[in-house]
Amino acid sequence: MGLAWTAMGGSSLYIETSRRHIRQGAKTDPNAVGGSLHITGNLGDVMKESAQIALTVARNFLYSLEPNNLFLEQEHIHLHVPEGATPKDGPSAGITIITALVSLATGKPVRQDVAMTGEVSLKGKVLPVGGIKEKTIAARRSGVNCLILPVDNKKDFEELPTYITEGLEVHFATTYEDVYKIAFTDVTETTTNNVVEQEPLQKVSSAAAAKSGTWP
């Protein structure tokens, strides 16, 4: 689950990925070498570029995680953002797209109670985004308990009123590796171990404390 800023406030947006089974002899993209990425969902140019960046980062991350896993290199993948009649654009779905791709390639499910937002660089650095207040409200409205934000947005989150942040488990990511450690943590393990902090990951537990969309 990703989070979007809209003119009407915040909204949750889902990223779906699936393997495309190509029959022998079927026509494919002549420019594709090995695997390919097919993108749908009425996305703007910026978001399409973000998806391509995410694929590169996901491939590099998967290589460091499972060197023998060639899924993202060899398979034809379909990436879709539902509600295709709604235009969507912006770069802040980067870490969400990577997570969806890694989940597909490894067969590991993502935590069901987590939502995230953050642009990503080619080196895997998580970059700040806008609309933190609206996105946090959207997360709460969707029943999300865990939120992953860029570390450079920590100040923006801390300025939010308590009634918005109360009860949320919030993590601030510096690199995609930080995102992975939270998004693929077993929920029961999280509850038992209270999510042990690991540098450079920063965590805030607030005890007191989607559909015309763009991804600012």
TrEMBL record:
Extent of the signal sequence: none
Highest taxon of the lineage: Eukaryota
Keywords carried by this UniProt record: Hydrolase, Protease, Serine protease
Keyword Hydrolase appears in the UniProt entry: yes
Keyword Repressor carried by entry: no
Lon proteolytic domain residues: 1-186
GO biological process: chaperone-mediated protein complex assembly; mitochondrial protein quality control; mitochondrion organization; positive regulation of protein catabolic process
Catalytic machinery residues: 92, 135
A molecular function GO annotation: ATP-dependent peptidase activity
GO terms under cellular component: mitochondrial matrix
Similarity annotation: Belongs to the peptidase S16 family.
PANTHER family assigned to the protein according to its UniProt record, in alphabetical order: LON PROTEASE, LON PROTEASE HOMOLOG, MITOCHONDRIAL
Protein name (Swiss-Prot/TrEMBL): Lon proteolytic domain-containing protein
Organism: Drosophila yakuba
